[in-house]
Write a structure and sequence with these properties.
By secondary structure, the chain is of the alpha+beta class. It contains 14 helices and 11 strands.
């Protein structure tokens, strides 16, 4: 096909594209003050929206303590230090993307983290009084992000080198032994000598089974355990209760916050940007000036971000190195009765389990003591709080999109689809989680979990489709705005980035 024929076919679409060049006059003579133009361009709208989203997604992150490189990260040099830093940047970029796509999940996770920290504060109160130590919300947040660890001193020969032979740890008087091996990623692999008891991970199908104590410890293969061994708040409580820890960690909230890398100045700039953005949208609505769908979406994003900020105020930010609460010689005695709680860890990986069919929520006994994933929750009521928080976040995020009900759209079909998608994104998450919560806490598991999973997948898929349409439409409609959408308000005179 010739080029002319192609251009002929594309002419209607090319002709539909139009461009307007803004020209402002300059003062005819020297003057002391020149006001800003009373118009804005398409890129002004786009850049202010994108900067607000980027600023929120970067500063809102309060990620867990990362997997340790085998030595103190502060001792890394050269290429190893570069790799460590790049891994941190990659992790932050990944969660920026998650926050951009699903701010309602981040809000729900923040609410669940706050609940877990508050429960930890109440649970530890008696021991904090007995031990004369401080234990508040900051301690609860810091613990559940993997901030407190157990460690073991490396085995060394008199010349300071590690021996080649693997040390043997006695697990029971039956002379059953376990060899120890330190891997590159600082994991201790515990393997049974018996060939029929090969090391494996145990998958726990539901929370009820996960709460059962391991009565016959030698009947299952012992999973791996990690060094350093990251602890949940519940595990610290159990270790203190059993006497394995003589006292709670003696560290103040100020000392924990000193490890935090949260920049107050950056947070203030981001907060002012979000507040300015919401203010200018409100002013445009009062003056009955057109608002772009992208601005409505960013307003919803900003409100969810502000709520998340307040929920995570006591939580440390960007802590890379954990604090050792106790160091053992040669190995961590997880085989002892006092350390039974360390052999029963169940981690709910929320994002990974959303679309997994099975007998319950996908909970796994992970490598014991490994770093705590950012989407992980300890088994318990935190998961129910997460579901409630995600539902509330979905209602807030979707309801603000409904505010664009009567805005201008390129076609009537798109306006109808927007109205449908905004209502769906508001109600689908509560509909998705309500049967799960009712089954868990009201009728006590009478509905088969497989049916609930199918229900979740159905409504979750509808929610994803609705959100995907809104995401595409907010950028498409940016190029079909009415004339008064380019008129500025007095809010443009406030300091902001656009």
């Amino acid at each position: 096909m010739s080029v002319s024929a192609i251009l002929t076919l594309l002419f209607p679409f090319v002709h539909a594209y139009s461009k307007f060049h803004t020209t402002c006059t300059t003062p005819s003579s020297r003057t002391n003050y020149v006001s800003s133009p009373d118009t804005r361009g398409t890129l002004d709208i786009l850049w202010s929206c994108l900067f607000t989203i980027i600023a929120c997604t970067w500063t809102i992150q309060h990620l867990n303590v990362p997997e340790q490189p085998g030595i103190d990260p502060r001792e890394l040099r050269g290429f190893q230090k570069l790799r460590w830093n790049l891994r941190g940047v990659r992790r932050s970029l990944k969660w920026m993307l998650v926050t951009t796509i699903a701010p309602e999940y981040i809000l729900g996770k923040a609410l669940a983290d706050l609940y877990a920290a508050y429960r930890s504060k109440n649970m530890m109160w008696i021991y904090s009084q007995l031990d004369g130590v401080d234990w508040g919300l900051t301690h609860g947040f810091f613990t559940n992000m993997g901030g407190f660890v157990l460690d073991q001193s490396p085995n060394e020969t008199p010349d300071g080198k590690r021996p080649k032979d693997l040390p043997i740890v006695e697990l029971a008087p039956n002379s059953i032994t376990v060899p120890l091996l330190r891997q590159n990623k600082s994991a201790i692999i515990l393997e049974r000598i018996l060939p029929t008891m090969a090391t494996r991970r145990k998958v726990v199908a539901n929370k009820r089974e996960a709460r059962k104590p391991v009565t016959d410890f030698l009947s299952i293969a012992l999973p791996y355990y990690n060094v350093p061994y990251h602890l949940f708040a519940d595990e610290i409580f159990d270790l203190r209760q059993s006497g394995a820890l003589p006292k709670l960690p003696k560290i103040t909230s100020a000392e924990i916050n000193d490890k935090s890398k949260g920049d107050t100045f950056v947070k203030l700039i981001t907060s002012f940007q979000v507040l300015w953005f919401i203010l200018q949208v409100i002013i445009r609505a009062i003056r009955q000036l057109s608002i772009s769908q992208l601005e409505i979406a960013v307003t919803a994003f900003g409100i969810c971000a502000i709520i998340t900020y307040f929920l995570l105020l006591p939580k440390p930010k960007s802590v890379d190195v954990p604090i050792t609460v106790k160091e053992f010689k040669d190995h961590i005695p997880i085989h002892q009765r006092e350390f039974k709680t360390l052999r029963q860890r169940v981690v709910q990986k929320y994002i990974r389990s959303l679309f997994v069919l099975g007998d319950g929520l996908a909970g796994e006994v992970e490598i014991m003591g490994s770093h705590i994933p950012n989407d992980a929750l300890n088994a318990g009521r935190e998961l129910a709080v997460l579901h409630v928080g995600v539902s509330l976040g979905g209602i807030i995020f979707g309801a603000i999109h409904i505010a664009a009900w009567n805005l201008s759209f390129p076609t009537a079909i798109e306006q109808t689809l927007w109205r449908t998608a905004s209502v769906m994104s508001t109600v689908m998450l509560p509909m998705m989680y309500l049967p799960l919560l009712v089954n868990e806490y009201v009728i006590r598991g009478r509905i088969p979990i497989v049916l609930i999973k199918i229900w979740d997948i159905f409504f979750g898929s509808l929610y994803v489709l609705a959100r995907a349409f809104l995401l595409v439409e907010i950028f498409r409609t940016l190029f079909y705005l009415p004339e008064d959408a380019y008129v500025t308000t007095w809010a443009s005179n406030f300091p902001h980035v656009s």
